[in-house]
Amino acid sequence: MTSLHSGAKCEPWWRPKAYVAMLLSALVPGVGQLYGGHKRRGIALISTTVILLILLLVVLRDQTMWLRWSVEPTALKWLLVGNGALLTFRVYAAADAFSNYDKPDRIATGRRAASASVIATISVLLIAIPHAYTGYLDVVQYDLIKTIFAPTATTTPSADSATSNFSPSSSTQPTSAITSSDSYNVTTPTQPEKTTTTTTTEPPRLWDGTERLNVLLLGGDGGKGRTSIRTDTIILASINPASGHTALFSVPRNMARVPVPESVSKWDCNCFPGIINALWRWADDRPNRFPDIADPGSEILKLAIGEMIGLEVHYYALINLAGFVELIDAIGGIDITVPKRLYDPKYSGPNGGSRTIDIQPGDYHMDGEEALAYARSRKTSNDYNRMGRQRCVLKAMAAQADPLRVVRSFPAIASTLKQNLFTDIPLESLPDFIELIPRVNADEIISVRLIPDRFTGPRTPDRFPTPDLEEIRSVVQAVLELTPQDALETLELENLEKKCG
């Protein structure tokens, strides 16, 4: 065979080793260099890769660390930079492995060209896809926390702060027992669990100065800024930051005449005459009465629940019904064991209309609409049975939202939360919440339903229950002071571990 160039051997049209080397280094930087005989360079790149993998494994093993980073805007920015740097490193390794081979004298055609294109494409995808998706998730998470959470710490005015006078409003009243006259002075309830703090050079943590961190968890039929918000699910979560002991106090939506601080009440009873799920809307409909409060609905509801239970309510989080449905659908549905039949011939969904639901005892995999119907129906049961079902649905969501499923569905979850989750938890305090996660033992959470007859007094003329303040506050304080097991035994509380109705 004669040479294509005088005095030189014929070079092959396609040198497959160059593409194979590129593919190998796209998988593991440095392996392509070893394949091509460049041992020193290959060992250097592989050593760098191993060091990076070890660092990654250390971070992933410390769940609290990377969860903290996931809710810190600055950390998310650095993670984006790190992702870009790692992408650059992998591109360099693959390109270097390829360039170590001489280029062919002619352009390959036919099968050889197709094979080269396939290998090159696979190499590019192996490098680009994981980094592109990781960067996308980083940006989505950054946008989520910056959208939902307050950028600066906000606190309810203290009890000794100056009060504000509120003028009447002409908004429609949610119940006939409420009138639109008189003015209001608003202060927060007292803070019995407040303790002195030690001054340090470190930024204060979310729970510094308190023995309990109390967060009001709400489910409503609307979002912030919308009309007709009714908080049909009301749960106060109280967490001991030191021990992680957690108690959940569920308040029935139809609890009437819930007390409010004296400085708020213009009524003889020093209470809200309507049922508690109407209070958010009542306050939100009267912004002129609360010129110094940015979000009257949540703040007045926090004051009322805190006054009834005897604790300061620090923060709230509300998700509306549409968000509840979309969130369950985003994680692929939930598995629920139904202990007894639930029948409702006229169930009204969040979008209007009615239909019949008939859920027999057994095991179910429910989508968002089915889970909402199960948690929300009360036509043939009551509010107290519904509270038990809601608790089981929430527990199922928490148990089945495994990390892989959450990551896979995260863009949809983030979109849902942005539109349907509202809270006053400050952005800079999110890492503190993350610190609490490993301290809370889900199996030891005490759940108390403040339902008749133990926790209620005389009923209103409309047959709504009223709170027995002495019993409620006594049990609440005892629950917070005792260990979970002692609380169950000493206070004769229901064991709600398997109670779903």
What would CATH call the class of the largest domain? Alpha Beta
| Cα radius of gyration in angstroms | 30 Å
CATH superfamily of the largest domain: LCP protein
Q: Number of helical segments? A: 15
C-alpha geometry: elongated
CATH architecture of the largest domain: 3-Layer(aba) Sandwich
Write up what this structure looks like.
This protein folds into two domains: about 15-150; about 165-190 and about 210-325 and about 385-490, Aminopeptidase (3-Layer(aba) Sandwich), CATH 3.40.630.190. It has about 500 residues and is of the alpha+beta class. The protein is built from 15 helices and 14 strands. The strands form five sheets. It has a six-stranded mixed sheet, with helices on both faces. It has a two-stranded antiparallel ribbon with strand order 1-2. It has a two-stranded antiparallel ribbon with strand order 6-7.
Structural descriptors:
disordered N terminus; two-stranded antiparallel sheet; Aminopeptidase; alpha+beta; 14 strands; elongated; 6-stranded mixed beta sheet; 501 residues
Topology at a glance:
Elements: H1 16-27, H2 31-35, H3 39-61, H4 63-70, H5 73-99, H6 110-148, E1 165-166, E2 184-185, E3 213-220, E4 231-239, E5 246-251, E6 256-259, E7 271-275, H7 279-284, H8 296-309, E8 315-320, H9 321-330, E9 334-338, E10 342-348, E11 354-359, E12 362-366, H10 368-376, H11 383-400, H12 403-420, E13 421-423, H13 430-436, E14 446-449, H14 469-481, H15 484-490
Parallel strand pairs: 3-8, 5-14
Antiparallel strand pairs: 1-2, 3-4, 4-5, 6-7, 8-13, 9-12, 10-11
Helix pairs in contact: 1-5, 1-6, 4-13, 5-6, 6-12, 9-10, 9-12, 10-11
